[in-house]
Amino acid sequence: MLLVSVLDPTFTFYTRDQAYAKLDGELGNRVRAAIEGVHPDIKILHFWDNSFRHFTNRVRPIRKPKDCEGIRTRTLPSEFHGHIYRRLGFDPAAQNIKDFITEIEISEFDGHDNPLTNIYHFNVHKYHRYITLTGHILSVCGLYVNLTLYEGWPDDVREAVDAAALEATNIQRALAIEEDIEQLKKFDPAENEIIRLTGA
Predict the structure, then answer these.
(1) What is the C-alpha radius of gyration for the chain, rounded to an integer number of angstroms?
(2) Rounded CA separation 122/68 (Å)
(3) What is the DSSP string of 131-200?
(4) Which domains does the chain have, with CATH numbers?
(5) Whether pLDDT at 42 is above 70
(6) What are the residues whose beta carbons fall under 8 Å from the beta carbon of 165, sequence distance 6 or more?
(7) Is the pLDDT confidence value at 132 over 90?
């Protein structure tokens, strides 16, 4: 799978239904063309759901941008993310996720962002009481195939691969949704506060 960072700007999508409609429509076609233009040896068959990212921290609940002020936050190695998080009020800095997890107990960072499954499996929830369901980025992966190989297949093989890729995409997206539902059940209310944002 190819990570599609071109879709990383924050608050691009507010729901998965909205995201899927865009990814399967004109936006997806434009992103596909842009990526394939840079990587002419691949063909993107579909876009997969790598889950919404959410903010966690050990300082306070985050319900509005003012609540972000002064929280030292680990970010992905992205200047764009650093700029956006700074505008929200965070004090952002990039750090490798492995280092962050290794040092989380004594870390200079008070917050970070990740999908729910990573928050739970990396044990971030044991150190960050507050989990705000911002869904500020829907991470997307490309399901791709070598273009030369694909074009060399007989028509019936390509059609079978296309059909299987579509079926796999629908299954993967359903699993991503279900995984988020199941992960939320695993957080102990005595140890973690789940903050759900309002439309405002």
Answers:
(1) 19
(2) 22
(3) EEEEEEEEEEEEEEEEHHHHHHS-HHHHHHHHHHHHHHHHHHHHHHHHHHHHHHHHS-TTT-EEEEPP--
(4) 2-196 (3.40.190.170)
(5) yes
(6) 45, 46, 143
(7) yes
